[in-house]
Every structure is written in C-alpha cells, then in structure tokens.
Design goal:
Elements (H helix, E strand, L loop, with lengths): L3 E6 L5 H9 L4 E7 L3 H11 L2 E3 L2 H7 L4 E4 L9 H7 L3 E4 L7 H14 L3 E3 L7 H10 L6 E9 L9 H4 L2 H4 L2 H11 L2 E9 L14 E8 L4 E7 L1 E13 L2 E6 L2 E6 L5 E4 L4 H15 L9 H20 L3 E2 L10
Parallel strand pairs: 1-2, 1-4, 2-3, 4-5, 5-6, 7-10
Antiparallel strand pairs: 7-11, 8-9, 8-15, 9-10, 11-12, 12-13, 13-14
Helix pairs in contact: 1-10, 4-5, 5-11, 6-9, 9-11
C-alpha cells in the first residue's frame, strides 16, 4: 500500500511535533505544509519535505491528500474541517477545536457524515498510566474527582486575548477536563470562578490567570479543577476517589490505592504525541475509527464543558453543559 499522504495546516507550535512523527513514520509522508507565514512553511518544508502553501484552499485544491493535521489557533479554523471532510481527507484536529460550540457542532456533523477517520488532539489519553487507570476504574464508581493544571504564561500574543484563545481552561487545561471526562464520566453541570490576579500589568491581557472550576457528573459524583498560569513551573494531574480506592495521576506517574492492599505505582514512558500520530495513520490504513481514542465528536464534548465554564464565569451562575448542545448531532 502507498504511504499516507499527509498535509499540515499551521506549521508552528505543536505542529512541529506532529511533523517530526509523521516524517519518521514509514507508512506516511509529509506532502504539503500550509502556514500564513510563508517563511515558516518554507523552513518546515526544508526540514520535513512537502510543497509549500500560504492558502489552505489552494493546498486542498492542488494536493491529493489522504490526511490533514490542523494545528492553527482556535480562532483561525474557519471552514478548514468541512472543506477537507467533503473531499474525503482524514482529519486530526488539535485542541481546542473551536471557540464557539455551535460552529464546532456543525463541523462534527459534517465530519461524521463524511465517514472519514477523525481525531481530536487529546494526547494525554495515550499515557499508559491513563490506560491502566481506566482499566482499574471500569467496574468502579468515582465519587469525587480533583484535577489541576498549574503552569506559566504562554508568550504567544493571541493566548492572552479572550476572543482568540478562550482563556486557559479552553486552551490548555482542557487536557485535564478531558481526563476528568475520560476517567470519571460525563459532566452535567459546571460552576466557575475566574480572576486576573498576577499578570494585570501584561499589555493587552484580558483572560483570567486563576480559575476554580466545580462540576457535577451525570452520575451525581462531584469534581473540581484548579487552573493557573501564575506559576513558574508546570504541574498537572488528576485524582479520582471512590469507596475504598484512590487513583492518582501526577504528570506521567500513576498510583492506585485500595483499602487493605499495597499501593500500585506506574510511570509512563510513552511519547503520547508519537503514539497518537502512529494510531491515526494506522487507523487510516485499516479504516478503523476505533483506534482513535478521541474522535472529533468526543473532543466536542470536552470543549462544551470548558465553554460552559466560561459562560458560568461570565454570568456568575451554574451552567448545564447540555444547554450548549442545541444542535443535535445525528
């Protein structure tokens, strides 16, 4: 079988990681790279190969692509997903998928109807520790979940603008929100407090740098996630508690504790982006969507939680996540 021909929209930031993995995959090849900054695209093409474009419509028209990585800022997606899906091009879309729920829901519907292989970039699902935690929890009921994403400010200019990034919960801490869903179940209602405390003197900043998110699962379990970019280091993790057990994921480390048993400890050694990208290519070759741990539609559910949290912050009221889902996906 011929190699999977892969295009890239967005060549900076996390795209560099995906470019590296695809260029090293013997079953795939970098065919085209598109970035609004031509110099960036030229530099990446020199390193990884592929034709250079600054206009995504031109690339989709001229290049016979099998797959497309979309790694653009959340405000810059436009109709890339719909146009690619209608051409039968398989999609891997970096998080966050969008800044508007209805827009992302419409994309999800087009993607689902197209039948293409599709994924959302929730790479932490690929940690071996997460897989072990999910296996342990399959017959257990978490009663409470605590998560955290504590980091430093991102130098990218658009990150600090609310209407371009959606804030830290949407843009970064979404990874922990996703793990809260993946391991704990579906989140029904959220209530969020946010504030700009440490970075008030940063020019043009209008996003909160501290966030406290409380939520309720449809099972009745409760949860909480702390999020900030007011720290000098980086830490992230999640804990799930139930009757006589506790599951702790701290970075790439996992501890499972059960009453009356010795603690079990595991450390993840896997490159999660590498595994995610490998499975994406394998899923395309085999035509097996089940190899993808987070589909676009599943990523939409995580986006809904974070956007509902933003709405809660803006209104000062609890928000039911389902209230964002006025557009049914059939």
């Amino acid at each position: 079988m011929k190699n999977v021909r892969v295009g890239f929209v967005g060549a900076g930031g996390i795209a560099n990681v995906h470019l590296q993995h695809i260029s090293n995959n013997e079953l795939a090849e970098v065919t085209a790279i598109c970035d609004i900054h031509e110099e960036t695209a030229l530099q990446k093409a020199k390193e990884f190969g592929g034709a250079v474009y600054t206009n995504v419509d031109e690339m989709l028209e001229k290049e016979p692509l099998d797959a497309l990585f979309i790694s653009v800022p959340p405000f810059a997606h436009g109709e890339i997903e719909e146009k690619a899906a209608k051409k039968g091009i398989h999609l891997m879309v970096e998080k966050p998928l969008e800044l508007d729920y209805q827009t992302a829901a419409k994309k999800a519907k087009v993607i689902k109807q197209s039948g293409i292989i599709n994924g959302a970039g929730y790479c932490l699902r690929h940690w071996e520790t997460v897989a072990k935690a999910k296996e342990f929890l399959k017959d257990k009921k978490p009663a409470m979940v605590r998560g955290y994403y504590l980091s430093s400010i991102v130098p990218t200019p658009w990150y600090i603008e609310w209407d371009k990034s959606g804030g830290q919960l949407v843009e970064q801490s979404t990874h922990i929100v996703d793990l809260a869903r993946y391991l704990g179940g579906e989140i029904e209602q959220v209530y969020a407090n946010m504030s700009l405390q440490v970075h008030r003197n940063v020019p043009n900043i209008n996003i909160p740098d501290v966030t406290s998110l409380n939520f309720v699962y449809d099972s009745g379990a409760v949860g909480h996630i702390d999020s900030t970019f007011a720290q000098f280091d980086h830490r992230m993790g999640i804990e799930l508690f139930g009757e006589d057990f506790r599951v702790v994921i701290d970075g790439g480390n996992l501890t499972i504790l059960e009453k009356g048993a010795a603690a079990l400890n595991f450390k993840s050694e896997l490159d999660v982006y590498g595994e995610q990208d490998r499975l994406f290519i394998e899923a395309i070759i085999k035509g097996d969507q089940n190899l993808i741990l987070s589909s676009y539609e599943d990523g939409l559910k995580t986006l809904a939680v974070t956007l509902a949290a933003n709405q809660s912050y803006e209104t000062g009221l609890p928000v039911k996540v389902a209230d964002l889902g006025k557009l049914a996906i059939k």
